[in-house]
Write a structure and sequence with these properties.
- The chain is mainly alpha-helical.
- The chain has one domain.
- The chain is 71% helix and 0% strand.
- The protein has helices at residues 3-14, 19-31, 41-44, 52-62, 64-82, 85-96, 104-109, 117-140.
- The longest helix is centred in the C-terminal third of the chain and has 24 residues, at 117-140.
- It is elongated and about 75 Å long.
- The protein starts with a helix and ends with a helix.
- It comes from Vagococcus vulneris.
């Protein structure tokens, strides 16, 4: 696997717990945009938009960054549900925890996972390859 693909998978896993926060932040920026105060607004008159709420909701539903974050979270959740226990422990301990306590070797040495070091590396690599493939597919397909 190429280094940039590996890095993309690691980044996606490390951001997994914060994805909802990122989505809320982007939605808040869309709902409450910053407008410069217009000193001459009373002279020109004001234009009102009766469908402002609809436009805001449409923008949130079609926003590319929000949809990409949602797809990324969905892909990771599905893969974690499908994988075996050892793979899930490896991924959760090494990438999803804010402060991981173990390395891959530590998981094997402490017998937290029921396989050897080489098998653990293969499980992690297999998970990353599947994640990379799913992220590639999901970014090409638009909703």
């Amino acid at each position: 696997m190429e280094n940039w693909r590996w890095g993309r998978c690691e980044s996606a896993l490390r951001d997994y717990n914060d994805i909802d926060t990122y989505i809320k932040k982007i939605e808040e920026e869309i709902r409450v945009p910053y407008h410069e105060p217009d000193l001459n607004a009373d002279i020109k008159g004001t234009r009102t938009d009766s469908d402002m709420m609809f436009d805001t909701m449409w923008t949130i539903q079609t926003h590319d960054a929000i949809n990409q974050l949602r797809r990324k979270k969905q892909v990771i959740t599905e893969l974690l549900n499908e994988c075996d226990d050892d793979t899930e422990i490896i991924i959760r301990e090494l990438y999803l925890k804010k402060w991981p306590r173990f390395t891959l070797n530590g998981l094997v040495d402490q017998q937290i996972i029921s396989c050897g070091r080489n098998k653990a590396i293969k499980l992690r690599r297999k998970f990353f390859e599947e994640l990379d493939r799913e992220l590639e597919i999901k970014t090409k397909v638009k909703l």
